[in-house]
Design a protein that fits this description.
single chain, about 350 residues
């Protein structure tokens, strides 16, 4: 027996519906490839600040030679002595300080960025080799023992982000029938839970940090609250495209610009520019400053996280206004639909 026209029509409509929804994972695939490969596939230094220790002519000549040879890759300056160089590292002003001499030394701060310290070490290993001497490397601000690669904070960022935007999908989807104020409370409640889980990961479970855990938790809460408020608010406008929108904002653009793998000085201009105000960078750099650098840079990065929360509150406010308008329109349309239904019933009765 052949399929009925009604059955074929239903199958075709269902297929079109599925194909329309398959557009989302395809866009995710393209977006993730462009973002991750664009940000990470070929890191190269540009304007990477390093110092040469010394005030004499030889130090000046070495600094200028390295600067010119790098053709924009390095920003080489001189500092008077070793204590001044160490102070610059602790102030997060430079990524390496080279002390020339018969026993050359390179000072780095792997807590700032292990990958950047590796790049700096490669540069000055060649310099020392040209002088015929082995290079001694001193890490003045090392990472904690529980985070030997210095990338544990990045993977913590990933966990916090997944917990946050997955919660957005649930609150926006399953909770769509709830009043927006309840959805907002759910968002804030989930941000507390997700950030607390992150603090457990960072502290007692994996020992990513040896100190400053309460401050890390506070920044994790600001970070997750910003994602949840923005995401839940956007669901009112984006509907089924919310997952893609949140992925773009808090995965594709966020992870790649956070500085957790490569600092902006090793990335293209686009991702380097995002680093200055994106929320993932605010979390990573804020925690680094809090845990390893005596609070250097924390205020600015906490402000970045707070502004994302403010943006989330603004999106929620816009969503509330939009939903009020929709409810008024629905309430106005209901009597009209009811009146039409009554008229149709009367017409049918008269016709009979």
């Amino acid at each position: 027996m052949s399929a009925s026209p009604a059955g074929l029509s239903s199958t075709g409509a269902s297929l079109r519906h599925v194909l329309g929804h398959l557009l989302t994972p395809l866009l995710m695939c393209v977006g993730m490839g462009l973002a991750y490969l664009g940000a990470f596939h070929a890191p190269e230094p540009h304007g990477l600040r390093v110092d040469v220790v010394g005030s004499g002519a030889s130090a000046q000549v070495l600094a200028q030679t390295l600067h010119d040879k790098g053709a924009g890759a390095l920003d080489v300056r001189t500092v008077a002595d070793r204590p001044a160089a160490e102070a610059q590292l602790r102030a997060r002003e430079t990524y390496g300080a080279y002390v020339p001499g018969t026993k050359p030394e390179l000072m780095v701060a792997t807590a700032e960025s292990d990958t950047t310290a590796t790049v700096v070490q490669k540069v000055f290993t060649e310099v020392a080799a040209e002088q015929g001497a082995p290079l001694r490397v001193t890490d003045v601000v090392p990472v904690s023992k529980g985070d030997p690669t210095g990338q544990g904070l990045f993977f913590l960022l990933v966990a916090l982000s997944i917990g946050s935007y997955a919660s957005v999908a649930v609150i926006g989807g399953a909770g769509a029938v709830l009043p927006l104020r309840i959805r907002a409370l759910l968002a804030l409640g989930m941000s507390l839970v997700v950030s607390a889980i992150g603090a457990v990961f960072a502290g007692p479970l994996f020992h990513l940090v040896d100190q400053g855990l309460p401050g890390l938790w506070a920044m994790a809460w600001l970070y997750t609250a910003g994602i949840l408020l923005v995401g839940v608010g956007l669901h009112t406008f984006l509907k089924r495209w919310t997952t893609l929108g949140v992925m773009v904002l808090f995965v594709m653009l966020n992870f790649t610009s956070s500085g957790g793998i490569f600092k902006p000085e090793l990335q293209s201009g686009f991702f380097a520019s995002l680093h200055s105000f994106w929320n993932g960078a605010g979390f990573i750099e804020g925690v680094r400053g809090h845990v390893y650098f005596d609070g250097t840079g924390v205020g600015r990065n906490v402000l970045v996280l707070a502004l994302w929360c403010v943006a989330g509150a603004a999106v929620m406010g816009a969503a509330a206004a939009s939903e009020r308008v929709r409810r008024r329109k629905a309430a106005h349309a209901a009597p009209v639909r009811e009146e039409r239904a009554v008229e149709e019933e009367l017409e049918e009765a008269v016709g009979v």
